[in-house]
Write a structure and sequence with these properties.
The chain is mostly helical. It has two domains: 189 residues, Fumarase C, Chain B, domain 1; 219 residues, Fumarase/aspartase (Central domain) (Fumarase C, Chain A, domain 2), CATH 1.20.200. It contains 19 helices and nine strands. Helix 9 crosses helix 11 and helix 9 crosses helix 18. The protein starts with a strand and ends in a 5-residue tail after the last helix. GO terms for molecular function: ammonia-lyase activity. This is Histidine ammonia-lyase. Keywords: Lyase.
């Protein structure tokens, strides 16, 4: 399918492109790009000093660059800024960054030619994935530069299962390396496309995870014999929250008709907080998610290039500003990371309640032969270790600060670092919830004779048991965890 960019993209569109949909631009979008490019041409002809067009960048912003080497300046910017290190971003993440970058150019305030944009859309169409190291960006420059390398025939890319040089990849797509003009190098490394694209992917993964968290929690609540009255709509409405109401409705629906819940009624005065507070913690995360999504959408609607090109060819305006800094984006990713870390930590506590014979009422550690078998004892260790890792990852990146470019850039908001942390934290959370899913299903194996499951939880039980049999210490548990995580990541919760 094709996503048409006319007046902009939202995070859901970027996420769809990250998953393989292609991107095309309307003629209106290309007209905006053409006008900004024409304005840059006239600035060059007039000789008016303008940052990044006929001056150096960063701390070299007062150094005028002769007209004859302005194209070389663009080329050099891409080469010098491509200094990322570490493991490569995955294809989904690189595609999202490209989509966000095209959206930024399509606002018509960057000054690049339409050829730059059409080359970027061709990368998406052919699923050509530039090699983009994941580390080394204080803001946005290095990731973008590694994508730009391929456009000029440098760097490396993955295409049709092969690793090619940038020039080879372009040739395979029937394209020639671009010769960059004035400002184009700066525009290609500039803006918040990197953090915005990564955040869009994180949002798609986060909402998917939150749906699973609600479903898996319901499975555990049923196995633990929860007191369903705590999730009554009227009771939850005493704390007004869209998120709480959404989660409460999901749990009631998932547990409707449960014989196990009926049998457990009145068994306890109240449940432990890891059970009773599911709507509150999961609901808070959904409320935070909504705020973060609105911030990412606002970022996609914003011009984040510096300088911004405005006016007309006859009366050009070059505005040096700080729209590429994006403190709000870093704070949003940090906030969502904290929310997801809390969801995962609560999941680990529920795992413990399922396997702990002191509170579960089930065989110790859900072992099929307690004593000679360890069951899920060490799987809970794994979840606890991942929770600890998440605690470190939830530390805000947006407060890190830093100084770069000879004091010219003496404030850093770190939105890309915040987005990368969020993505890493989501990896851990998926594993933790996968372990809870496995433990919940194993717990239900011991409850078959007590009463019937609800239809909603039975769907979760069947979805896992189609792939994994009851665990009897008869195989390494690690592979089971990987299978459960893959199922969780690639499919929606079964209804």
């Amino acid at each position: 399918m094709t996503v048409l960019l006319d007046n902009g993209l939202d995070w859901r569109a970027v996420a769809r492109i990250s998953e393989g949909e292609v991107l095309s631009l309307s003629e209106a979008a290309y007209s905006r790009i053409d006008l900004a490019s024409l304005i840059v041409d006239n600035i060059i002809a007039s000789g008016v000093r303008a940052y990044g067009i006929n001056t150096g960048v960063g701390a070299l912003s007062d150094t005028v660059v002769d007209r004859t080497v302005q194209g070389q300046l663009s080329h050099s910017i891409v080469l010098s800024h491509a200094c990322g290190v570490g493991p490569l971003l995955d294809a989904r993440e690189v595609r999202a960054i490209i989509a966000a970058q095209v959206a930024n150019f399509a606002h018509g305030h960057s000054g690049v030619r339409r050829e730059i944009v059409s080359h970027l859309t061709m990368l998406l169409e052919h699923d050509c994935i530039p090699h983009v190291p994941s580390r080394g960006s204080a803001g946005y420059l290095t990731h973008n530069a590694h994508i730009a390398l391929v456009l000029i025939g440098e760097g490396r890319a993955q295409l049709s299962g092969r690793t090619l040089s940038g020039r080879e990849a372009l040739d395979a797509m029937g394209l020639k390396p671009l010769v960059l003009g004035a400002k184009e190098g700066l525009s290609l490394v500039n803006g918040t496309a990197c953090a915005t694209g990564l955040s869009s992917v994180a949002l798609a993964r986060a909402i998917h995870l939150l749906d699973w968290a609600d479903a898996i929690a319901a499975l555990t609540l049923e196995a633990a014999g929860c007191q369903i009255g705590a999730f009554d709509e009227t009771i939850l409405a005493l704390r007004p929250s869209k998120g709480i109401a959404t989660v409460g409705a999901s749990i009631r629906s998932r547990l409707h008709g449960s014989g196990l819940i009926a049998v457990a009624q009145g068994r306890r005065t109240q449940d432990a907080l890891s059970l009773r507070a599911v709507p509150h913690a999961h609901g808070a995360a959904r409320d935070v998610f909504d705020v973060c999504a609105s911030i990412v959408d606002r970022e996609l609607a914003s011009v984040t290039d510096n300088p911004a090109i405005l006016g007309t060819p006859e009366h050009p305006i070059v505005a040096s500003e700080a729209h590429a800094v994006a403190p709000a984006l870093g704070q949003a990713a940090d906030s969502l990371a904290i929310a997801i870390a809390q969801i995962a930590a609560m999941s680990e506590r529920r795992i413990d309640r399922l396997i702990n014979p002191l509170v579960s009422g089930l065989p110790p550690f859900l072992a099929t032969d307690a004593g000679s078998h360890s069951g899920f004892m060490i799987a809970q260790y794994t979840a606890a270790a991942l929770v600890a890792d998440n605690r470190r990852l939830a530390s805000p990146a947006s407060t890190d600060g830093g100084l770069t470019s000879g004091l010219q850039e003496d404030f850093l908001a770190h939105p890309t670092a915040a987005a990368n942390k969020l993505l890493a934290l989501l990896d851990n959370a998926e594993y933790i919830l996968a372990i809870e899913w496995m433990a919940g299903v194993q717990a239900h194996d011991f409850l078959e004779s007590v009463a019937e499951r609800a239809a909603g939880t039975n769907a979760l039980y069947d979805a896992l048991r189609k792939h994994l049999q009851t665990y009897a210490d008869d195989r390494p548990l690690s592979l089971d965890i990987e299978i459960a995580r893959m199922l969780l990541r690639e499919h929606a919760p079964p209804a």
